[in-house]
C-alpha cells in the first residue's frame, strides 16, 4: 500500500491537478485504485443527560457540547465531465443537510433520556416532558459509545445508492474523550 501511494505521489510530482492539461478524472481513478478517498464533516450540539447507576458524578444531570465527525468513503466518485458534482464524493452541503436533519436538529439542547434508566432518571424525564422542554428518548444508557453506535446506524442508511458509504463516525463527549465507530 505504501509503495502504491508513493508511486501515485511520484506521478503527481510537479503537476497541478487543477491545471486543465491534466485529466482530473484519471487522477481520481488512480486514487480509487490504490487508496481510499474519504470526506469528513464536523458538527457540534449541546445536550443534557445523566448516567443511571453510575458510581461517580455522571449520575447527576449534566451537559456536554458533543462534537461529531461523519466520514464517508467513495464507492463511485462522480467522473462525468461537466456534472455539477464532478470530482466530489458528495456535496458537503448535502452531507451537512442530512446530518443536521437526522441528528443535530433532534438532539441539540435536549435531555437525552434512557427509557430503561433509574427511577431518578425517569422522574427527571417526566418533569422535562411536563414542562414541555426538549427531550430525546432512547432505549439505551446514554454513554458516548452507545450514542455513537446509534448515530452510525441512523446515518448509514442515508447514503445507500449515493455512490458513497458511511466509513466512520467520531463522537466527542469532552474535548479529550471520544468514541469511534467504523463500518
Ligand atoms: Zn456525561
CATH architecture heading of the largest domain = 2-Layer Sandwich
Determine Rg (CA atoms, Å). 21 Å
Helical content stands at 25-40%
Write out the distinct hetero groups bound to the structure: zinc ion
Distance between the termini: 20 Å
Shape: elongated
Sum up the structure in keywords.
alpha/beta; 6-stranded mixed β-sheet; 6 strands; 2 domains; binds zinc ion; disordered N terminus; 5 helices; Tetrahydropterin Synthase, Chain A; 183 residues
Overview of the structural elements:
- With 183 residues, this protein is α/β, with parallel strands linked by helices.
- The protein folds into two domains: 1-35; 36-182, Tetrahydropterin Synthase, Chain A, CATH 3.30.479.
- The protein contains five helices and six strands, in the order ααββαβαβαββ.
- It has helices spanning 2-12, 24-34, 92-107, 119-130, 144-156; strands at 38-49, 62-74, 110-114, 135-138, 164-174, 177-182.
- The protein has a six-stranded mixed sheet with strand order 4-3-1-2-5-6.
- It is elongated, with a radius of gyration of 21 Å.
- Zinc ion binds next to β2.
